[in-house]
Amino acid sequence: MRIGLIAGPWYPIPPAGYGGIELVVDALARGFSRAGHEVLLAAAADSTCPVERLPGMHSSEPDLVGFTSSELSHVISAYAGMDGMVDLVHDHTLAGPLYRGRPDGLPVVTTIHSDLSPSFAAVYGAAARDTTLIAISKSQVSSVLADRVAAIIPHGMEVDAVPVGHGQGGYACFLGRMCPDKGVVEAIRVAQLAGVPLRIAAKMREPAEMQYYRDVVKPLQGPDVEFLGEVGGAEKYKLLGEATALLNPIQWMEPFGLVMIEAMATGTPVVATPMGSAPEIVDDGVSGYLASSLEDLAGLLLRAGTLDRRSVRAQAEDRFSTERMVEAHLALYSRLTGVASTR
Fold first, then answer.
1. Integer CA distances (angstroms), 178 to 187, 231, 285, in order
2. Which residues contact 299 (CB under 8 A, 6 or more apart)?
3. Fewer CB atoms < 10 Å away: N or C end of the chain?
4. Would strands 245-248 and 270-272 be described as parallel, antiparallel, or unpaired?
5. Would you give the end-to-end CA distance of the chain in angstroms?
6. What angle in degrees, to the nearest 10, is found between the helix axes of 258-265 and 309-319?
7. Contact 323, 31 (CB under 8 A)
């Protein structure tokens, strides 16, 4: 099968630091290639993913995140370059599924990477007229668009490439974006209630993120709360692997929390609020704990170190591997194209 993948224009594939969607696209590209399929990736020109990449794309533009013109010009170039080159396109942008200049008769699939608030639901509802929709969790489509989604495929990752950590660093960690939805303030309060040092690694590039840190988060930092900035690659997995637990007290209906399976891959349990996809990812009492109140989360943080790290890692291997994600995608692609999913 010849598979076209379209990533967004703003970050390279794979990302150097923060970038959940970009990590997923990278894992899919590598997984499809290992499975014997041809992959053509339309991504920022400074991407390093080891598959064939569409020439003529611009370098990553992190300063233009969210700019419609940047994404649209990227999408136009991607579809023009893939015309006649692929059997199917899997588009991971928001604008692409609504673009009407794409080649006639070309099957297009898109993954819903956002929550389905009314505005996003309207976009994907319109896209569903001629684009196949993939959801990433049951909770994401529990109240809208469930009848228009062709498959629910949870994210996966290259679990085998992640070293198992010892969890003896004597701290909990938070990993995400510097914004209220991700629960960084709640993580600080939980760690302080439990008397456990906290290390925070967070993306903080945009003005709103920097202001939130300056005005809200920094004043809460005491001697046992350390802000590390943004981390990626080996540094990220070392941080996760040495932590007693990942604190992930999200404050929104997150459709899928990739950071939770990254922590589980290192053997580190997750202590989280039961919002969005968290109950679908964390096996309560096995790979972590779920609770709503800060006091309960603090108590569970103190218990997290007693969980079997081998069982936590096994959850990531069994449920969230790249191979399982790739197999599910290829089965859907095969139904849409009539081309065999195996070589």
1. 12, 13, 28
2. 194
3. C
4. parallel
5. 8
6. 130
7. yes
